[in-house]
Amino acid sequence: MINTSQMNKTELMASYIQRFPNHADLTIAKKAYKENVLVWSNLESARSCVRMVRGKMGLYSAKDKSLYTQKTYDTNPYKLPDTEEKIREPYILPKADNNILLISDLHIPYHNISAITAALKYGEEAKVNTIIINGDLIDFYQMSRFERDPRKRSAKFEFDTTKAFLVILRATFPDARIYWVKGNHDVRYEHWLMAKAPEVFDDPYYRLEERLRLNEEKIHLINDKTIIKAGKLNIHHGHLFFRGFGSPISPAKTVYDKSFEDTICSHVHKKTEFSKVSLSGKLITCYTTGCLCELSPDYAPFGNSYVHGFAHIKVKDSGDFDLKNITI
Q1: Residue 168 domain-assigned (yes or no)
Q2: Which of 14, 57, 122, 149 suits 91 as a labelling partner, its CA being 20 to 30 A distant?
Q3: Domain membership flag for residue 308
């Protein structure tokens, strides 16, 4: 079985295709799905991933197929040493996932019930077919590297409360596709495992997927170092965009300065927007969204400009999109 801890779905499937280049799509899908039941929701999803990587679904051109079938020495005439270079690819949402409710920064168990209720109610009325939890679903307070109050809730309580929320979310949107993008708080658990229990870090039993039994609610977990593409819109929690910037006055402009593409982030708990028109006349807009957690946390009890909010995104067949950045 391949170690999938640092792979997204596309990279993982590409590794199987590289190992078995002459196997049929279904054969590879069966093997990959059997060995990685937490990655794909069903066999058909795994098969679609094989077809996508092999360029049969329009997401890769024919010339790109060689990236997944050539052996290393075919593109290494000088016999250079093997590299540990990591090629990062975006997670491309299926075109059917075109009516999206984007929520973020719940920081369970420090969530705001009224704000979450408003967001879910909006999603029901808008008949969304996709939910994106754009990071920091769970707080992991006791696993923080910062000063901690021992009177705060335990990790077990946070896990149990988060699971209860996910059950409610799935019951509310029984037919929607639900994605959870890891934020900086969500990865605290992995960082804690690496530091405190490295002996079990590679055991799938201890991963978030298993601990919260995400398969039961058909929730797809996406690595925090992966960009989601919804048509022409980039989606990310945002913490990696703000490294070295402190707390910018205009977070959306910071996202623009890092991406130069239409992008929406969360993380800062503030609703901001920044637009520019390129020399060729293309309008580029970047956004940051409000949060669904307490507005006066211990680390920033006042003067923080935090607001409650979420976003509604509709993606057209062309890849263009309509976006509402909503304040509650």
Answers
A1: yes
A2: 122
A3: yes
Predicted confidence band of residue 248 (pLDDT cuts 50, 70, 90):
confident
The structure tokens listed for 106 are: 């719940």
Establish if 32 belongs to a structural domain. Answer: yes
The tokens for 264 are: 């929406």
Closest CA to 266 of 286, 296, 249: 286
What pLDDT score does 55 carry?
81
Token reading at 133:
């939890």
Three-class SS state of 263 = strand
3-state secondary structure of 245: coil
Let me know if residue 80 belongs to a domain.
Answer: no
Q: Using the structure block, give the residue that is written with the tokens 């002996």.
A: 199
Report residue 124 as tokens.
């029901």
The verdict on 63 and 108 lying in the same domain is no
Residue 58, pLDDT score: 56
Residue 214's CB is within 10 A of a number of other CB atoms, namely: 20
Say what the pTM is.
0.77
CA dist 194 and 285 (Å) reads: 37
